[in-house]
């Protein structure tokens, strides 16, 4: 299963802000962390990540600096700002609402919309 | 060094070469700035390191990492969404860090030259000749080019580090122009004065061309560059003039609102000095933006070549249809001279942007139609006018206009022939280009003849 593109795009900002809220990080590490968190189900590309980071920077949600940690290459590190934290809190409220609503529906539907029963053999 | 270490060194070297190549491709994208390329390269390296750790060879790891990152096309598209302003090429006047000192020095010299041009325009006032005086037209008319163009030539010569002999030649030509403009005893309202006022700037502009092409003025490519420079300079000058117009209107309006009449300041200082400085600034802009901004003159010609062709063809059809000859009024000759100049300009500027190696296409045929119809119209006019001249005798104006007509006619006629052969694939495009560039001295010689020889020839009439 791969998560649909629209959903990936919609959840991109809170995910990146959330990761940066844990600790400052750089592009490759962020992408790895996303992979880790989603078990490889979230299909992120560099073309999604870097422009998003630049946009967040333009909006003042993150700030960046070129630094080299000891024994490492020079890298562009991103750090979340206070504005970014506020944005994350706001996004989180919105997502909680969506997730709660979905949960209500899923439980209401019971098993009907649970993982579909795929006719495997002999039913065709 | 063990064999394995040696092997590793070779691999690292190969990997670095691949990174360098990738960077090269990335930096060719306008959407990706160098810091973006840095960031993406770091990403790529992270990816490669991990893959190597997982047991892949450096080579394989690089391939996989690049593949995972996706094509640069896609990547730049995504970047363009966030950084759409990058698709608009910006003219960074101070360039990168390397070009910084050079372009700053350019800027300083340009400001100096522009100030010099404005100052020399106002210099005659030190000797009591004000611009508003009645007699000032006879001073400013023919001398206008002499006040301003030496500064532009000087700026270009400085930029190209022209050699001494060339600077000497240019100086001599400007001096010759000064003599021609001021020594002849021509009356204030004579035709000779008007002719000198028109032709001397043309002659001097071609001296600027010498400075532009510097030591290589014989080369056809350099001359073509000068033609491009001229077109772009004109476009920039017009733009600056439009901005200047807005500035003037606001100066006049705002000061009038508080009861200060600024008319004198505007007509004595703002307009003349602004125009003189604008000539230099436009020249500097063309030099600074070369290859940064798309040339606009060829775009305009592409737009107007078909339109002019249609109008000229319609005119020819109308002449045949109504079977009335062209009524040759006094200004007709000038009008048709200008028509030929415009057609020549359309031809020159579409040529300046044409890929010399491209095969002839529809546009070349359209140009042929344009040139041929202009020629046909001009022949009609010329016949009518030679009739009039033989009837009523000649004046300096008529002689000059007729001479120009013949020069332009000769140029366009041969261009038409070359265009025809180009369309039929008999001659390469280069022949046409060479013809136009080698024709430049003809204009210079004619302009100098009108300036130097016409006044005495026609008794300073």
TrEMBL record, chain A:
InterPro entries: Metal_resp_DNA-bind_regulator, Tscrpt_reg_PadR_N, WH-like_DNA-bd_sf, WH_DNA-bd_sf. Transmembrane segments: none annotated. Residues 16-90 form the Transcription regulator PadR N-terminal domain. It holds the Pfam family PadR. This is PadR family transcriptional regulator.
From TrEMBL, chain B:
The chain crosses the membrane at residues 109-127, 139-158, 165-187, 193-213, 233-253, 265-286, 307-326, 332-349, 369-387, 399-420, 440-458. It comes from the Bacteria. The keyword Membrane applies. Keywords: Membrane, Transmembrane, Transmembrane helix. InterPro entries: Perm_prefix_1. The keyword Coiled coil does not apply. This is DUF4153 domain-containing protein. It comes from Parafrankia soli. The lineage of its organism: Bacteria, Bacillati, Actinomycetota, Actinomycetes, Frankiales.
């Amino acid at each position: 299963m791969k998560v649909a593109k629209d959903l990936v795009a919609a959840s991109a900002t809170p995910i990146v802000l959330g990761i940066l809220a844990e600790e400052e990080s750089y592009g490759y590490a962020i992408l790895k962390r996303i992979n880790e968190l989603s078990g490889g189900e979230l299909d992120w590309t560099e073309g999604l990540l870097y422009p998003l980071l630049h946009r967040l920077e333009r909006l003042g949600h993150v700030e960046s600096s070129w630094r080299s940690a000891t024994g490492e290459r020079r890298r562009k590190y991103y750090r979340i700002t206070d504005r970014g934290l506020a944005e994350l809190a706001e996004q989180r409220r919105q997502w909680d609402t969506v997730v709660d609503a979905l949960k209500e529906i899923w439980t209401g539907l019971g098993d009907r919309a649970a993982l579909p029963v795929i006719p495997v053999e002999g039913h065709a | 060094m063990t064999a394995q270490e040696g092997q590793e060194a070779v691999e690292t070297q190969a990997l670095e070469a691949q990174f360098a190549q990738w960077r090269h491709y990335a930096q060719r994208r306008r959407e990706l700035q160098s810091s973006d390329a840095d960031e993406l390269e770091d990403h790529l390296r992270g990816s490669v390191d991990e893959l190597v750790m997982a047991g892949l060879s450096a080579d394989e790891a690089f391939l996989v990492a690049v593949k995972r990152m996706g094509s640069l096309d896609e990547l730049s598209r995504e970047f363009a969404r966030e950084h759409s302003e990058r698709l608009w090429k910006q003219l960074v006047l101070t360039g990168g860090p390397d070009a910084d000192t050079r372009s700053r020095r350019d800027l300083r010299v340009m400001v100096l030259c522009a100030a010099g041009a404005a100052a020399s325009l106002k210099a005659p006032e030190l000797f009591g000749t004000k611009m508003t005086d009645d007699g000032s037209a006879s001073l400013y008319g023919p001398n206008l080019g002499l006040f301003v163009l030496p500064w532009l030539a000087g700026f270009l010569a400085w930029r190209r580090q022209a050699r001494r002999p060339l600077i000497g030649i240019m100086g001599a030509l400007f001096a010759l122009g000064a003599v021609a403009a001021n020594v002849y005893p021509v009356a204030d309202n004579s035709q000779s004065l008007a002719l000198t006022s028109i032709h001397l700037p043309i002659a001097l502009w071609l001296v600027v061309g010498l400075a532009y092409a510097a030591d290589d003025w014989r080369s056809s490519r350099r001359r073509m560059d000068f033609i491009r420079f001229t077109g772009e300079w004109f476009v920039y000058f017009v733009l600056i003039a439009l901005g200047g117009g807005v500035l003037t209107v606001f100066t006049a309006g705002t000061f009038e609102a508080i009861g200060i009449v600024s008319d004198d300041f505007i007509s004595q200082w703002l307009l003349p000095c602004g125009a003189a400085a604008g000539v230099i600034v436009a020249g500097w802009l063309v030099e600074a933006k070369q290859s940064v901004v798309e040339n606009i003159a060829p775009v305009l010609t592409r737009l107007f070549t078909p339109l002019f062709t249609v109008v000229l063809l319609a005119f020819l059809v109308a002449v045949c249809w109504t079977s009335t000859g062209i009524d040759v009024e006094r200004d007709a000759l000038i009008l048709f001279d200008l028509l030929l100049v415009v057609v020549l300009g359309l031809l020159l500027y579409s040529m300046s942007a044409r890929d010399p190696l491209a095969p002839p296409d529809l546009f070349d045929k359209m140009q042929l139609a344009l040139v041929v119809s202009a020629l046909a119209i001009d022949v009609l006019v010329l016949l009518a006018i030679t009739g009039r001249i033989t009837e009523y005798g000649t004046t300096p104006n008529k002689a000059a206009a007729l001479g120009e007509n013949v020069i332009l006619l000769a140029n366009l006629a041969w261009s038409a022939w070359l265009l025809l052969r180009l369309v039929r694939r008999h001659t390469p495009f280069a022949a046409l280009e060479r013809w136009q560039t080698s024709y430049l001295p003809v204009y210079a010689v004619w302009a100098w003849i009108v300036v130097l020889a016409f006044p005495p020839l026609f008794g300073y009439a």
